[in-house]
User: What shape does this take?
Amino acid sequence: MMKRDFGVAAAGSELVLATSSDEDHPPENIIDGTETFWITTGMFPQEFIIRFPELISISCVKIHSYNVRRLSIEKSTVKDPVDFEPLAKSELEHYEEQLQLEEFKLNGTRATHLRFVIKSGFHHFVSVHKVTIESTEEVT
Assistant: This one.
């Protein structure tokens, strides 16, 4: 089977919620497939939700970020972004002037939405540059 990345708008995914928005670095930058990024506007927790075109099977999630300390991922399997269940959590390492890359192996968990909750940061402001959501099967 071929891997497909549902972390980009080109795959039909949408960013349906973000708790903050900066005019120069809006949340849609997370899924635009370019070198842009979303920056939070301070305070924690911060979160964003990505909706997939349909129920997908997820093998791996990778998040490229800066200054994120504690992160959790939750999933929903229903049509609307509700009824989230815990999926993964992590304490990230801090790297000066370097992006963090955190990888979560999810072994085919199925979801229609993923909610990313940034519980704390190493600074008042954090950024999310890209989320890769690998699916090893076609949309069902």
Summary: The chain is about 0% helix and 55% strand.
